[in-house]
Amino acid sequence: MNSWVNRVGSRIDVEVLEESALAMAQSTIQNAMDEARVSKADLADRMECHRSLVTRMLSGSHNLTVRTMSRALAACGYEIRFQRVPLVWYWGAQAAPPAQKALPAPAGSTMPVTMEMAGLVVPA
What we know:
Blueprint: H1 3-8, H2 14-36, H3 40-47, H4 51-59, H5 66-75
């Protein structure tokens, strides 16, 4: 399973990616239900399935298929759209940029001290 991951260039926990995708799918369905004011029972009726499927689908105990997700969103008046994005993995240890040493301003200086001068690095 992890053989393709090594080609990406870093250690990636595929299970974390899968669970994250499933959580995003579940929240997308839940948000659609909330916005459309559709209850679990109403969604089950509209999907022509048992309410227990809807409960499992939203609890994470059901592995959603594209078809099931599409049907759930359609029942709420939405359609599914996919977007691919580059894989960015931040779980591994990353080297911190070298610390910049700040030099104190000469005594009696009227030069304003900026955050960079004070040794604080503010991300852009």
